[in-house]
Amino acid sequence: MAKTERVGVYPGTFDPTTNGHMDIIKRGARVLDRLVIGVAVNAGKGPLFSLDERVEMVRDEVATLDDPKIGEIEVKPFDSLLMQFAEAQNADCILRGLRAVSDFDYEFQMAGMNARLNADIEILFLMASERHQFIASRLVKEIAALGGDITSFVSPAVARRVNEQFGRLDLQAVNE
Ligand code: ADP
Where do the structural domains in the chain lie, given as residue ranges? Predict the structure, then answer.
């Protein structure tokens, strides 16, 4: 029988999960039967949150989604090549979010390389709403580190976690 279920993988570091990520997740989950959010280990980026914390954070955010039009959503960690992870999930496509032109160079190159690895898995680009397009995890962390208000970029639950994390890190620095 022909495969009818449409499966997508949305990979990212999610350090932390922002309103921009959630916007892409909602859009993706509306057009797919199953969306697997792949949380990358990405030790190279020196994440603020551990892999387990990031997986838990994305799961908690996804649990708050209340939209009858969205398909099934799963959250899984991965430390393999993205294309291998997508193949293991039986994915038809990989979702990426595009913000400004600044994302384009990197995404263009990645999409080209990934298409060589497996041309059967399509790379789809989605744009967040204009309210969320400028949001970046890196800037959220920079603002929070300096004591700024991040509540218009992330959910209240994520804001609490980020602020707690910086609180903890500050305490550690004082104790060292
Ligand atoms: P990565 O380390 O893969 O860049 P991120 O967690 O930073 O992981 O981002 C995951 C994906 O979400 C990327 O495709 C990124 O472009 C997209 N993304 C992040 N923030 C936004 C946003 N505000 N609007 C649209 N896409 C976004």
Answer: 7-130
Q: What is the mean pLDDT of residues 128-156?
A: 95
Q: What is the pLDDT of residue 33?
A: 97
Give pairs for 168-176: CB < 8 Å, separation 24+.
Answer: none
Assess if CATH 3.30.465.10 describes domain 7-130: no
Best residue for ligand 1 mutational test, from 23, 24, 36, 53 (most atoms within 8 Å of Cβ): 24
Provide the Cα torsion 9, 10, 11, 12; round to 10°. -170
Contact 16, 143 (CB under 8 A): no
Six-digit token string for 68: 């009858």
